[in-house]
Design goal:
Elements lengths: L1 E3 L9 H4 E3 L3 H13 L6 H16 L2 H16 L7 H11 L5 H13 L1
Antiparallel strand pairs: 1-2
Helix pairs in contact: 2-3, 4-5, 4-6, 5-6
């Protein structure tokens, strides 16, 4: 999940406006708790879930931001390589409080990630 901060000025970039929030720790705890009392039948599925959660938790923030941007652009039917201005507009429409600079940086980051 991403959290967008309003405000900022000219010198404020993506790092100041976009935070990647992770709740994987709570989910991982719940799966570990379920694993502790799991039957032999349930165990493989829960172990797989635990591995998936660990993988998501280890992802870099840039990757999480890029995934969000690519989802927004796919939903809008915009190709960020050929339609960069439209891509920036789509990202800003998806998150109204995002500055032009931060949206442009997000789109560029998504293209390069």
């Amino acid at each position: 999940m991403l959290e967008f901060l309003n405000g900022g000025g000219r010198s404020t970039g993506i790092a100041h406006e976009v935070l990647v929030l992770r709740d994987t720790e709570a989910v991982a705890d719940a799966v570990r708790e379920a694993l502790a009392g799991a039957s032999d039948e349930e165990r493989p599925g829960l172990e797989r879930a635990a591995a998936l959660i660990a993988g998501c938790a280890a992802r870099p923030e840039a990757e999480a931001r890029a995934e969000w941007v690519r989802g927004v652009l796919a939903a809008a039917g915009v190709d960020p390589v050929r339609q960069e201005v439209r891509a920036i507009k789509a990202v800003r429409q998806a998150e109204r409080g995002l500055s032009l600079r931060a949206a442009a940086e997000l789109v560029r980051e998504a293209k390069n990630t």
